[in-house]
Specification:
Oligomer: single chain
Strand order of the largest sheet: 1-7-6-5-4-2-3
Shape: globular
Structural class: alpha/beta
Bound molecules: pyridoxal-5'-phosphate
Radius of gyration: 26 Å
Number of strands: 12
Helix content: 25-40%
Number of helices: 17
Strand content: 5-15%
CATH class of one domain: Alpha Beta
Order of helices and strands: HHHHEHEHEHEHEHEHEEEHEHHEEHHHH
Length: 495
């Protein structure tokens, strides 16, 4: 059935508000402030509510759908986090409140710094960066400041594996480094021989995700860190995949010197749609003096603890205004406190079990390029299906018809027709089985009825979009005439 459109419900004089009689004289607004060329619909309050609620229900979200978007850790966001983030003292604290009157908020930040340092096995934390990529930038600025502080100014190369997330080489370049790419070997590890040939007196450091974007734990991680350290470089850890190792191992113990977290991935603050996130960084003790301004410190005074904002002595400066994304920090703090150390360990264990279970169910029907136990996610290739005339993009569109958000596709770049699946720990076996059944059903369709896959989605509110134009030149305005004709067209198709 075609959707009713709010613009077509318009009826002259109808309004969506009712205001009491004005108690002040009318005044006209300055010329040009109100645009009267906008042909806005005149509708009732109930019409408006129905329009927006209907639109909101067309969204795919964690609260409505399984969302196995690899590398994004789309896990359940516990509602108690929202409860805490909306407590008056959290929600209403003004960033210019003097520290002596914001002790509770600063305590949350201080204890979050401590918890994140503990989880990383590192010594000091900055909560300032507003996203993972921003954390990368901040961490790499710290790395550069460290080398410069030692007068070690010839180090201008950063090594990045070919499996890396695109933000890694982009970050290194933004900080002014040259990027050297190291290959992955046939087991999905960093090619250690090539790494040894790449490092030298020009190496500033290496950016590495472990487990990597193939969902594989690098079997030579200690040798990699040793190789880079022996050349005088530092190890940067992309912590987007922390969901695989919480309480099991620590980046600091593996040899990383600086890393970022994605609180909106690992630590259950909501993400997607470009909302606020947070990408705190953790560093080893010798890098703490370079952290961005400010950090939260605790002082013991007359038997009481006082929290203060402090500027690290050789700070790289400000990377964000005020305190960072405080409401996100409060949510992550709530989650960590609620889980405790044992809870966090069990998060990662379940994330790993869930991913391995799905991988085992799917690896005969799809091609599995790196066939060894995975961590919290795994990467399949749609190359068998491609030979049947169905591309990974088509499979991703078809899975929408089964009521699931598609996995990440065409990433990492080193896997042909990649399907990157991250189920997360918060899904149960019934959901995993339903998803696996759907993925298997699609492989049968690829043999018998590929056209159904190629023309998917069939059940979604919108059919297939032109992906490039939709991203580069999004069409966000409603045009009555076009919509009306499309409306009729859709209607004909449906009947
Ligand atoms: C998500 C992700 C990032 C970037 O994080 P944002 O918070 O989206 O900026 C970096 N690296 C990896 C491996 C990621 O998965």
């Amino acid at each position: 059935m075609p959707e009713p459109l709010i613009f077509e419900w318009s009826s002259e004089g109808r309004t969506a508000y009712s205001l009491p009689e004005s108690q002040v004289p009318d005044a006209s607004l300055p010329e040009g402030l109100v645009r009267d060329e906008l042909d806005l619909p005149e509708v009732s309050e109930l019409d408006v509510v129905r329009h927006f609620v209907r639109l909101s229900q067309q969204n795919v979200s964690i609260d409505t759908h399984f969302y196995p978007l690899g590398s994004c850790t789309m896990k359940y966001n516990p509602k108690v986090n929202e409860e805490v983030a909306s407590l008056r003292g959290v929600r209403r604290v003004h960033p210019y409140t003097p520290p002596e009157r914001a002790q509770g908020a600063l305590q949350i930040m201080y204890e979050l710094q401590q918890a994140l340092a503990e989880i990383a096995g590192l010594d000091a934390v900055s909560l300032q960066p507003a996203a993972g990529a921003h954390g990368e930038l901040t961490g790499m600025l710290v790395m550069r400041a460290y080398h410069e502080s030692r007068g070690d100014t010839n180090r201008h190369v950063v090594i990045v594996p070919d499996s890396a997330h695109g933000t890694n080489p982009a970050t290194a370049a933004m900080v002014g480094y040259q990027v050297a790419t190291v290959r992955s070997d046939e087991r999905g590890n960093v090619d250690l021989d090539q790494l040894r040939s790449l490092v030298g007196p020009e190496t500033a450091g290496m950016m590495l995700t472990n487990p990597n974007t193939l969902g594989l734990f690098d079997e030579h991680i200690e040798a990699i860190c040793r190789t880079v350290h022996e050349a005088g470089g530092l190890m940067y850890g992309d912590g987007a995949n922390m969901n695989a190792i919480l309480g099991i191992t620590k980046p600091g113990e593996l040899g990383f010197d600086v890393m970022h977290y994605n609180l909106h991935k690992t630590f259950t603050t909501p993400h997607g749609g470009g909302g606020p996130g947070a990408g705190p960084i953790a560093v080893r003790d010798f890098l703490a003096e370079f952290l961005p301004d400010p950090v939260v410190v605790a002082r013991e005074e007359d038997g009481a603890t006082r929290y203060e904002l402090e500027t690290p002595v050789r700070t790289v400066g400000k990377v964000r205004s005020l305190w960072g994304n405080f409401a996100v920090l409060a949510r992550a703090y709530t989650y960590i406190r609620q889980q405790g150390a044992d809870g966090l360990r069990s998060v990662s264990r379940h994330a790993i079990i869930n991913a391995n279970y799905l991988m085992a169910r799917l690896k005969d029907a799809y091609y599995l390029p790196y066939d060894r136990p995975c961590m919290h996610e795994f990467v399949l290739s749609g190359r068998k299906q491609k030979r049947q005339g169905v591309r990974t993009l088509d499979i991703a569109k078809r899975i929408i018809d089964f009521g699931f958000h598609p996995p990440t596709i065409y990433f990492p770049l080193i896997v042909d027709e990649a399907l990157m699946i991250e189920p997360t720990e918060t899904e149960n076996k019934r959901t995993l089985d339903e998803f696996a059944d759907a993925m298997l059903e699609i492989t049968r369709e690829a043999e018998t009825d590929p056209e159904t896959i190629r023309s998917a989605p069939h059940e979604a509110p919108l059919r297939r979009l032109d992906e490039t134009t939709a991203a580069r030149r999004p069409d966000l305005t409603y045009r009555a005439a076009e919509a009306a004709s499309q409306h009729t067209e859709e209607h004909t198709k449906h009947s």
